[in-house]
Structures are given as C-alpha cells and as structure tokens.
Amino acid sequence: MAATKNSLLCCVLFFITIAVVPTAHAVDQFTFNGFSGADGQILRDRVSILKPSGALRLTSTRTKNAIGHAFHTRPIRMLNRTSPFPSSSSFATTFVFSIVSPAAGKGGFGLAFVLAPSPEFPGAAADHYLGLFNSTTNDGDPSNHVFAIEFDTVNGVNDTRDTDGNHVGINVNSMNSRKASSAYFVDDRNQRQEVILQSGDPIQAWVEYDAVLKRVDVTVSPAGNRKPTTPLLSESLDLTPVVRELMYAGFSASTGEKASAHYILGWSFSANGDLAPPLNISLLPSPPPAEESPSRFAPSVIALISALCAVTVILLAVLIFATLYKRVTMRFEALEDWELECPHRFRYRDLYSGTRGFSDSEMIGIGGFGAVYRAIIPNSGSLLAVKKITPNSIQGIREFAAEIESLGRLRHKNLVNLQGWCKQRSDLLLVYDYIPNGSLDFFLYGGGQRGLSWEQRFRILKGIAAGLLYLHEEWEQVVIHRDVKSSNVLIDGEMNGRLGDFGLARLYNHGTASHTTNVVGTVGYIAPELARTGKASTRSDVFAFGVLLLETASGRRPIGGGGGDDDSFILVDWVTECLQMGSVLDAADARLERRYVAAEEMEMEMVLGLGLICSHPRQESRPTMRQVVRYLNCEDQLPTVDRRGYTDDDALGSARRVNSRLLEVVMSTAPDLGSDMYSSSSISGASTSSIYNGR
After folding, report:
1. 19: buried, middle or exposed (CB in 10 Å: 19+, 13-18, 0-12)?
2. What are the transmembrane regions (predicted)?
C-alpha cells in the first residue's frame, strides 16, 4: 500500500512539473530602446542583421528579392486554456521603424508586425508576400495561425482591399487584408496628416488587441509625437481561433525587383492587459541615410559626375559660408549637466512660431517665474503649452532644471506631462501638455460662469490624491511637490484633475529624510512645521492637500475667503468652528445649494472631515496619501473627527500665529515692490500673486 501511495505521489509531481515548465519559458513584457546587446534575445534569419548603432535591419537596398525575419527568442502565452472555453489574451505593442529607399529613387515593399506559432516560415515568398506566405500552398490557409499588421509601400498583386501603395493593413493567415487604409494620423485639430512610410523618417506604430471587446486598433504617427487619440484602423476581430497557446512576436520584411532597407529602432510589448511600456525616443538609434543601389554607370562616368558635384558644392559653400557660420555660432550652446537625461529638446523657431512670437494673445497664464503660452507646433500641428522662464532669475533657472529633472521622468495620468524643453541664449522654455480647461481656481473663483458640480469636484480631488500618492510612494524616488494649491490643479478635457508646476519639487530616496531648505510654497497651504523649521516632507504636502480639500468643498480661499476685505479669515479655523457647532455641512459651497443626493452629502461630509484631519497642526496626526486615497475611495472608514483635537487653543493658535506671521512679512514687503514685481514676485519662494489672490 505504501509503495502504491508513493507511486501516485510521484505521478502527480511529474504532471505538475510538466504543466509548470512551459510557463517558465514564456514572456509577457519586454522593452528595447535600441537593440545594442540584445543579440541573445532576438532570433534573426535570412538577411536581417544587428547594426553597431543598435538598429535592427531586416533588409537592405542592395539585395533584391530578399527576406528578413526578427523575432523575440521567447514565445508569448496568447491563449488561456485554463477555462472550459479557451480565449485569446489581450496584448499591446509599440515600435519605431524606418523604411529607407535607395538614393536613386523609390524602393519596394514593406514590413509587418507578426504573431506566429513559429519564427520560421519555410517556403515563404518575397515581394508582396513580405516573407510570410507564398501564392501556391498557404496564402489564405487557416492552419497558418498567423496574425500580421502590414506597413506596405507597394500594392500587392492579390491584395484587393488595399487602397494605395502607402498603406497599413490588418491580415489574418493571408496577404489579402481584412481592413486597410492609407497611412495617416489625426492631429489635435482633428485634421488628417499623411504619413509617408518610405520617407526614411522614424515612424511609431501602436498595435493593441482587446480580448474582451474583440477589437484590434492600429495607430501610426511620426516618432516623437504624442500617440493620436483616433486610431488609423479599428477592426472587430476575435483572435481566439487564430492564435495558439504560445506565439512568437516579431517582424518580417521583404524586397522585390526594387528594394528598400527596413529598420526596427525600438520595440516594447505587453501581454498582461496593460499598455505597452513607453519607448524613450531619445535613446533610439537614428535611421541610416539612404543607401546607394548598385550602379549601372562606368566608374569613369561616376568620377566625372562626382568631380562636377564637388566643384559646385565648393562654389556654393563660398557664397553662403558667412551666413551659415553666423547662424551656427548664434545657435550653439553647450549642454548642461541636467540636460543629459531628460525629455527631448524642441527647436526654438518652432516654439517661437507656434506662440506667434510669444504674443500676448496666446498667453494663457502667468506664474511666479514666467508666463505660459498656448502653442501650435508647425508640421505636426500638436497643441502644447510653453512656459517661458523669466530671464536673469536664478530662482527661475533652478525651477527650469527642477521641472526637467523631476516632471520630465514622471508619468501618471493625474500629473501634467512634460514634453520637452528649449534653451536659446537667455530664453529658458518648458514645453508640456496643453490642458484645455485651465486651473481649478478659475472654476472656483472665476465669477461663477462655469461652476463645478459636486460629482466633478469629488472626481478632481480623487485624481489629485492619486497623483500625490504616486509622487510620495509609487515612483522610484520620493517627490515632495511643495506647492499643492488650486491654481496648480489643471482640468483636462474630461474634467479630470492633473497636478502641475514642479518648479519647487524636491526628490529624495525612499527611506531617507528631507533636508532643511528655505520656506517655499503659498501662504494658506504652508504646514506649521514647515514655517517653523523650513523642512518639507510628504506630511507637509498632505497638509496642503487638506487645505485643497476644504477649499474645493467650500468654494472659499484658504486666507481671506470670508468675504469683503477680511484678511483674518482662515479657512481651516472656520470649518473647525462649523464642526464644533455640529453643522459641518454649513461649510459646503453655497453655490451647490445642497443639490446632491444622500450619498453625495455623505461624500461632502467625509471630504470636509478628511480636510481637517489632513490639515491638523501636528504632522504626526496627519494620514499618509495612501490612507487618504483609501478614504476617498471608501475602502477605509474615516476616523471620527475629535472636536477637542481642533479646539485645542495651543495647537490651533500656533497654526494661526504661523499664518499671521507669514502674512505680515509678505504684506510689509509688498509696498516696496514695483508694479510688475507685485503681480508675480516671490518671498522665500512664496508667490505674492498667489497670496493676494488667496491661493
């Protein structure tokens, strides 16, 4: 009996081992910012090679009727067989490619992103079959189990659905596309912009499959642009009968009697339901220049033509040398240390043109360190915001570097995304997403024309809380924003809140303490311990967020929001008094007129109570942003607000005295400032325009 049990146990362990082993060999996510050092991770055959620059070349202009393949060495699990009804998995991929035509003229045929059960394609033909199928045995055969997105430059012989030579198509088991379209993208003005696939320029493509909706989306755009919101192709397609359990992902390209060089410059893939990891465009290799095709002319003729061209070039160079030299010397600038790792650099002339010469008509705001302009970038048509740092401002230069260092590498849906920068002599420019609806303080205090409902306010607050949690705990370093306030909360087109202006931000490693600095921020949002010690922390950000909670719920400014010229009004104290009198809902914005259901009334009461807890005078009594997010999402119950904790004369009086002392310092300094400085000056980093506007 014991021997029988041991035999059964061994069998069970054997079958468990067999079931687990294939999973260990599968991969579900990877990123290649160039392919230097990736030789062991890419399977190549036929004419494909890895260039020393890190570019993956599939074909060359020097080889006709050739095929090149490149696939990841590890397969991807694309079919879930654990359920009684197997289904395909969602995936997303993005890659940057370049199709370089020969210098003598146009080349031939394109490339394809491919999912296949094997990285080998025996019997595959070149030219319009792109190295995947052939005309006699398997084009259109369902047993191929091949899914491909073609980026072609020539009409296929049998590909009747393709509209023109410069097209993108969705193919299943055949070169006859299920759906195809001329290559283009839709810009921010909702205008179609053509994408020339064989231009030689880097082009980025996104391929996304939603296994729940059974839909494939394909998008293309010049590399470096934001991903267009409207896909080029969107097709209802169930890949369950197409894919097998394990599939190989990669690329295939071919040439015909005319040849082009096909390059893959970067690639990322995710099969876990998430978006594909973003590519760092600045790290990708540049596509090589056009390659010369084999010449039909004799060497002597080539030499004569070359000599004539050389003489012409020399004569032209003599005529324009002075002008070119002047332009080069005017535009040359050495890179600063902080410029080595950050978003890409914009051309000054594009920003100058996009803002109409930094015209006042394009100005959308002004802050403590400079003005912000709306810009439409030439060629791409992208709509962006450009912050022009005030010249000769040391603090402004520090803000310029701080925003690139911090915001430039942060990525979260509730943060403003920095697109790049520009430095032209004394002009320092930051380029980031254009947020169409302006800032939260405009909605709260802009005259009431565009009031916010409670549902919109609550969603904005939850978004900003999620952004602060990312800064404090979820990024690679701790980021202390140090200037959380309503004027730094921007509202996007979907009425989501996004936190911006990282000019005062500081970064620290997790587990280390912050350092003492000058007191910075905006009066009304500055935590008491920050005013006393000058030491910012995540808890001081929580204090400012608590004030933002109260401000958004009440519709009143943190300082002097009681009406009239009463500068003694402090929002935190007033809400505390409402709580003491047992009527905390009296602090709700009167413009809402209590037009909310019972659930929203509970949310309002919770937000006011949470605002008081976050703005507690003692930092150790404040929650973390993770706790705040859980409270706002109703995942944890908000602790009962202890009225005695907010009626302690010493604690509350201390907070009042700190705010009053800061106001006295700024008020006493303001009369000595000129009119220009008054509108946007700073005292120890605190913006007087923010103070006088109650922000």
Report:
1. exposed
2. 301-325
46-281 topology per CATH: Jelly Rolls (2.60.120)
Catalytic residue among 152, 159, 483, 589: 483
> Quick one: which H or E segment has residue 665?
helix 649-669
DSSP 8-state assignment for residue 375: E
Q: Is 483 a catalytic residue?
A: yes
Query: Is residue 537's pLDDT more than 80?
Result: yes
pLDDT digits (tens, 9 = 90+) for 154-177: 875 554 444 568 999 999 999 999
CA distances in angstroms from 64 to 67, 119, 126, 486, listed in the order given:
9, 22, 9, 62
The fold of the 340-433 domain, in CATH, is Phosphorylase Kinase; domain 1 (3.30.200)
Determine the number of helices (DSSP H) and then strands (DSSP E) in the chain: 14, 31
Residue ranges of the annotated binding site for ATP are 388
Q: What are phi and psi of 580, to 5 degrees?
A: -60, -35
Angstrom CA distances, 381 to 187, 191, 355, 438, stand at 6, 9, 12, 21
Q: What φ, ψ does residue 548 adopt, rounded to 5°?
A: -60, -40
In DSSP terms, which residues pair with 347 in a beta bridge? none
β-strand pairing of 67-72 with 233-236:
unpaired
Handedness of CA 228, 233, 238, 242 (dihedral sign): negative
Q: Which amino acid is at 246?
A: L
Residue for token pair 């006295």 = 664
Which residues contact residue 97 at a Cβ distance below 8 angstroms, ignoring those fewer than 6 apart? 111, 151, 202, 203, 205, 251, 262, 263, 264, 265
> How confident is the model over 382-397, as pLDDT tens digits?
899 998 876 655 555 6
pLDDT in tens, 272-321: 888 999 999 999 998 877 655 455 555 667 788 888 899 888 988 888 87
Q: Are 51 and 2 in contact (CB under 8 A)?
A: no
Superfamily of domain 440-692: Transferase(Phosphotransferase) domain 1 (1.10.510.10)
pLDDT of residue 165: 81
Q: Say how far apart CA 395 and CA 627 lie, in whole Å.
A: 34
**What average pLDDT does range 461-471 have in this prediction?**
97
What percent of the chain lies above the pLDDT cut of 90? 48
What distance in Å separates the CA atoms of residue 561 and residue 571, rounded to the nearest whole number?
7
Q: Is the pLDDT of residue 517 over 90?
A: no
Which position has the token pair 């800061």?
Answer: 662
Q: Do domains 46-281 and 440-692 have the same CATH topology?
A: no
Residue pair 261/288 in contact (Cβ under 8 Å)? The answer is yes
Going from N- to C-terminal start, the domains of the chain cover: 46-281, 340-433, 440-692
Taking residue 426's Cβ as centre, other Cβ atoms within 10 Å add up to 8
pTM of the predicted model over 0.70:
no
Closest CA to 26 of 268, 249, 266: 249
Question: Using an 8 Å Cβ cutoff, are 148 and 93 in contact?
Answer: no
Dist CA 471 CA 476 (whole Å): 9
CB under 8 Å, gap of 24 or more: what pairs does 80-86 form?
A: 81/245, 86/240
CA angle 395, 400, 405 (to 5 degrees): 120
Residue 295 carries which DSSP code? P
* Exposed/middle/buried for residue 105 (C-beta within 10 Å: 0-12, 13-18, 19+): exposed
